Amino acid sequence: MAAKSAGSALDWGWNHSPATSAALVAGGAYTVATAGTVTGLPASHALLVAGAGAVAQVGADLYQHRPTGHTAARCAAWLTAGGWTAIVLETHTALTWGAAGWWAAGTAAGMTLARGLVRAEATARTERHQRKLQKWANKRAGEWHERLERLFRLEGHQVDGVRPWKGDVGYTVLVTMPSNTPELPADAVRKLAVDLRLPKGGGIQILDGDTYGQTLIRVTAVDVLAKVVDLPDGSEDTTVTSIYDGLPLGLKPDGEEARIAVVDECALVVGQTGSGKTNTVNTANAGALRTDNTVVMHIDVTGAGISLPWLHSWAVDGTAKVPLIDWTADTIEEAHILCDTVIAGIAARKTGHQDLLTEDDKLTVTHDLPEVLVAVDEIAELTPGLLRKLDTIVNTGRAVRVRVLVCGLRATQDVITAAMKKQSRVRVGMRVSDPEELSHLFPTGGGRINPKSAPYKGCGFYSSPDADDVVSDPTAFKGYRIKPKQIRALSVAYADRRPHLEPVFLDTEPALYYASRWGRILPRIYKAKQLAPTTTPYTDMDVLHPPVNEFTGIPITSSTEDDENGNGGPRVVASTATTPAGPQVRVGSDLLTTMLNAARPTPGPSSLDDSTGIQADFGRVIQQAGTPQNRPNPVPQLLADAHNAVVAAGGRMHTADLAALLQMEPLVLGTELGKLLREVSIERPGKGTVRAGKDSESKPGYTAETLAAAMRAYNLRDGQ
Q1: Most CB atoms within 10 A, among 45, 190, 381, 467?
Q2: Is there a contact between 373 and 403 (Cβ–Cβ < 8 Å)?
Q3: Are 401 and 390 in contact (CB under 8 A)?
């Protein structure tokens, strides 16, 4: 593969033009004449070589069906060169001005003749192809005129043309419909497919033409979607591109490339497990990383799966000098830091680049001012707080070229937020089993999509704005297949062209934690694995950890940052700034416990009347009375104790570990906490699994953010 090495290589191909080839032959003749004069080479040898060349030329021209006149001209050139060489060898005059002059004149004539012959042959070949194509189109047009008349009893229609597709996979028929029948009937697709005896995977698509009354009939005769199409990685496929060119995803049924535009728009990719969704995201990564004006960041809290293949060449092999992915958020906490930095960078770009917005209200992307593309995988695993921050990026980043590519299992409201769906004009739906999934993803045109049109793994439908900013109807495509081995090779080829975020973007308070990001991330995703020396410039520094809000468990990256509800209320903050050699120090849990316990009523033997009494079962207040000043704390004690324990453990904890700490059975704890969360309609993200412990294993558990959200819900429900 041409992408295996970023270094320069010698090109041993015979990439010569006809003129240079003639010059080389002439140069060889002069060399033979000069050397032969010194060594006494017989003149007959030159004539023998020229004759053999002329015979070979005749054979080659006959094989390529060249005109007889062209063959005679080429044979004459061979014999002329051989004759000149024989005369010079016989007379020993190779180094005289006369012989050199005749040689120069013959060389110039040969170059001119070669160029003219090739041009004439190319023209003749094009004309032959056009005549053949026209003959084919005329035959097809006649067949379609008769077919439309026979199947639909049309009269007065006209087949204006038939255009074949690239790769001979199908063709398009342009029909002018009669005034009394402006459209084909509803069952036309089925009837035409049966009449043409199209194979499975082939099909008919009927579209409107440029003017009223024109109909385009697209015929797919070859099942492109059934093929495995590897991502092209030849030398011409790895050249530097721009994000303005769009990101290639695969091939459409007509063999054309399917591309999505992400300069102005966010993208939404959905698909069920095993549909090729992750492969599609990696293909989009390859397209973005091929450019020299795009910074790619990842959020994947399920183990950084979409980042690891792209980081391997830098972090493990050491063959890439820089990380291909600028930032990888592998945990909820790291994702908060990334989002805070991006949000602050958006605001900084809006104020810091005002002088660049004179001609347009949007920044122009360059290598020095790159687009920031944040790819988010497994969106359902994120917490509500992170989703709100992503919504902010989606809603505010367009003008300063910060866009988001979201990937999820479904396009429903429980997975994708309303802002993400509304602002994502680029939609990609991979293979699904339920047509309603596609109808929900594609609000226009989705009702006409049949999932059976893209039944294979790696197939899907996409819609994206075109050059005129018009969103096309959903179109089927077959995604390029990209494998980890190919990703590692491309990582080396693309490493040297990676841009950097400009100082304006990084001159913010949250960006203080940007430089040491890999010092936090690499030990988590590679654990004890030996890292390559290429990572040293990114890790040989003090590793900064932002302080954490002890109530929510969310990192605080700004001194002016409000709490999660944006009310700027009091917070209990734990400092977590550490160095690689020192452990994290967390304080504040005891103070929070004291605050919560102070609001609880002191149990006593005295009985209460109906006006101030409380009826409660385990962990849940059923009925209470009295004024807000003397009401008990509405937060169930079990919920508060669990929250304190999870915060003290670092913000996330497995159910079994939490149960052991609270001296309860894991099943009982899970059941009771589940009741408390359901009581206030709080759901745990990621199906209730968290990564915690020394090995960051994914097991059922709880995060401080989820428990804090439930505590706030209890307070709001009871008016406190």
Answers
A1: 381
A2: yes
A3: no
